[in-house]
Amino acid sequence: MYRLIEFLRRTYVTILFVILEVVAISFYARSTYYTQARLLARANAVTGGISTAISDIGKYFSLGRENAMLTERVAQLEQELTMYRTVMADSMAIREAAELQYEYMPARIVSNSINRNRNFMTLNRGLRDGVTTDMAVLSPSGEAVGYILACSERYSVALSILNTSFRTGGKIVGDDYSGSIEWDGISPHKVQMHELSKYADIKVGAEVVTSGFSHYFPAGMLIGTVESFELDRTQTSYDAVIRLAVDIAKLYNVVLVKNIGLDEAVQLEEEAEHKIYD
Q: Cβ(254)–Cβ(71) under 8 Å?
């Protein structure tokens, strides 16, 4: 009791000041409607700012989960789009069972290199998830990224487009001529297109997509845009510099694409080759 009295004796001036301030603010707040409106607006601004900050923090920590959900949804939509295209292309005689050429599944990059001549990506999907070699790897928005080289039960390794051994076919959007896409090992933002016919309709800024002639990528997957081009030494074809549409270093989620008919096509090609050389 003595300590309480002593505490009040030392602090009664401060306590009295706070009480008087609260009473004064209360009278001021109720003095006019204008005053009430101003104080309410200030209070709402403060609480709104605090709520926004808390909400932003929550959104930041949920970004990983939301990105994974979005990537999975992209894979599902790509699967549905392929089915619709198949049905539309064969509308004159609807198949008894729709045979889709491609299957899609989401995956996450757990390891990625861009600073070497031979760069690879390790993904968190493997044999138990249905991953097989030669599956294409796309960004969530559909840009070409690489293709699967090897699989274990839980993981797979993809050859990055930023690998000097990478090869695929590419063409200018709206043009029928195709060339070979590869990387020279210099810039992580650019690849090269070679052997593009000099009759191709090429110009700076034109979009370059996959040609569909390789076993890995579906046709029409965006690779990048033409940054520069010139005729090669033979003056019969173009060499072009292509700026990639996706920043490989910033990739986290990807979509894997499986060409269902790949094994059949490869087997048929091998049989035809044996017949030629036998």
A: yes
